[in-house]
Amino acid sequence: MPFPNLMAASSSTGDSTLLLFALVLLLSVLVSQFANRSVLSTAVVFLVAGFICGPGVTGALRLSPDQPIVSGFIELALFSVLYTDGMRVGIRDLTSAWKLPGRALLFGLPLTLVAVGVVAKFLLGLSWTEAAVIGAVLSPTDPVFAAAIVGREEVPYRLRHLLNVESGLNDGLALPLVLIALGIAGKAELELATMLTELGVGVAIGVVVPWIAIRLESTRVFASSEPYRPLLGFAIGLTVLALTRMFHANEFLAAFAAGMTIATKDEKLRERFHELGELLAELFKLAALLIFGALIDPSYFGEIGLTGWTFVFLTLVLARPLAMLVSFAGTDLTKREWVAAAWFGPKGFASVFFAFLVLQHHLDHGVWIFHLLAVTVGTSIIAHSSTDVIVARWFDEEEAQ
């Protein structure tokens, strides 16, 4: 019977993935102190470990994009990332020092999308709709891969605030654009009403669930004890995830809306959940990067060709800097702050998930586009994660002068 064999294969894949993740995590923790002082990045360690153990190199991990373990884990990781990202940007955070993040989001995000799309259209010869998909997928940023920038006191606060707020919001803002672009470019008919309903119900669940939980928790009857208070944030997120799947709503916008609602309504809950939430999101993200690395086959590097590599280069060193140059025109950013903001636009974890969506929408060149996106995101993670400490020290030297 094939069913037991399938279950055995799935179990074997899960066990080997779990073992590899545990070993790489152990190694990363043991060298974390050294990594904080060098260009070594934990994200790069997991990405490279997955690549080496993937089917294209050693074959220790037998993973493919169509396996449930891959899509399921990527979705769970993005949900946790968006949930914790949302908690960084409550209404109070948005109204304070909004000028620079607002420019990055309202001008920088769409300008980056357009710049990447134009390059994809004329350099790669793709259709406008496929080019728009690539632009939307690669427009969000994730400074988690540039942790030394947002976590160092020597880096100016307004720059750290800019990158934090921008990355916290642009994943959620880019998601509808990605879905619309994929719907237009894909072979399946775009059901705009259905998609908007899923998005709207997702946002509603994301706002209502934490609002009710926070109201209940503030009463004497339902007040939580201090040791359990961090778990309240976890329980809210889990409830939101379950309800969105039950009602077929968009779980990612729900996660982001839930995080923002908590940040706005209950500052203490945000603070108490912060350490647990960030740790859980980081674990999910690292595991997903391991899986993503295992899916990058060495053949992709040659398959995308010279034009593909030219696209990768222009995307990383031209599209974002040009968009930021226009967005911050007339502001009082120093040259070093502008350079850091322009360079640290790493293609983050949201782009990893969006790349998987490309495969599910059956674009004419969908497989090739996925390979191109995989190489672009992987290159971005390595390039940005390897230069964050250097740029942070650059600001430290400026302060010492």
TrEMBL record:
The gene is nhaP2_1. It comes from Haloferula sargassicola. The keyword Ion transport applies. It is a multi-pass membrane protein. Keywords: Antiport, Cell membrane, Ion transport, Membrane, Transmembrane, Transmembrane helix, Transport. Pfam families: Na_H_Exchanger (PF00999). The keyword Translocase does not apply. This is K(+)/H(+) antiporter NhaP2. It is found in: Cell membrane. Its main location: membrane. InterPro entries: Cation/H_exchanger_TM, Na+/solute_symporter_sf. Residues 26-391 form the Cation/H+ exchanger transmembrane domain. It comes from the Bacteria. Gene3D superfamilies: 1.20.1530.20. The chain crosses the membrane at residues 42-61, 104-124, 195-214, 234-258, 279-296, 308-326, 338-359, 365-383.
